[in-house]
Amino acid sequence: MLEDLKLCKGYDGFLYLAESIRNPPKLKSHHHVELELNLVVQGTITYIVGGRRYTFYPRTLLWLFPEQEHQLVDRSDDAQNYVVVFKPSLIARSCRTSPYAGLKHTQYEHDGILNALLKPDSFDLIRKIMDSLMQGALDPDLLNREAGFGVRPEFSFEHGDLDGLNAGLHHLLLLCWRCQQTGKVLGDAVTLHPAVDRAVKLLSAGD
């Protein structure tokens, strides 16, 4: 299902800290035209992509490309993960040289989810940047209830420092891609039985 993230004019993307304790909603299986990045801060989160189940742990960076159907199906009670999305227009402006060409892809070229376990210093740096970009953001409870982009039709993501947010997203995009190249790629996944995969999709469609 193609999801409209309803980003207002002038915004190059958004970010928010998803926290289990704030009871964020579970979304149906979906994809969107924006590139999505997750950073697991604590606890675990589990996605289903392409009929396989992937669980990610703290310090993991993971990427979901625009044509990549995905669904977050589980998270630990203490889970915290940053969710960041980048508009195609930002990627086109920011990624002009060959080291960043992979960010222009609409689909991951291999099976699964592109990810990396970050080195502690890289994780700390990225997390601090994400924390700083949350200054001026909407209330965390509200962002979690709306899954960042807006479960309710009348909601739209807003930030008190639009220029600062956009500049930060540009820097974050390139920094995270560089860290992806030096991090440890994790390949563990559980292949779902076809009946289980169908059941997950039916439950998702019926929500």
Order of secondary-structure elements: EEEEEEEHEHHHEH
- Indicate the structural class: alpha+beta
State mean pLDDT (0 to 100 scale).
Answer: 91
- Indicate the CATH topology: Jelly Rolls
Number of strands: 9
In the CATH hierarchy, the architecture is Sandwich
Q: Uncertain segments of ≥5 residues (pLDDT<50)?
A: 189-206
Tell me the strand percentage band: 15-25%
* Whole-number count of domains: 1
Main β-sheet, spatial strand arrangement? 1-7-2-5-8
Q: Report how far apart the termini are.
A: 13 Å
Q: Estimate percent helicity.
A: 25-40%
Assign the CATH class.
Answer: Mainly Beta
Rough shape? globular
Kindly provide the radius of gyration, computed on alpha-carbon positions and rounded to a whole number of angstroms. Answer: 16 Å
Q: Please report the number of helical segments.
A: 5
Main sheet record: 5 strands, antiparallel
Sequence-ordered SSE layout with sheet pairings:
Elements: E1 13-19, E2 35-42, E3 45-49, E4 52-56, E5 60-64, E6 71-75, E7 80-86, H1 88-94, E8 114-117, H2 120-133, H3 140-145, H4 162-182, E9 190-191, H5 194-206
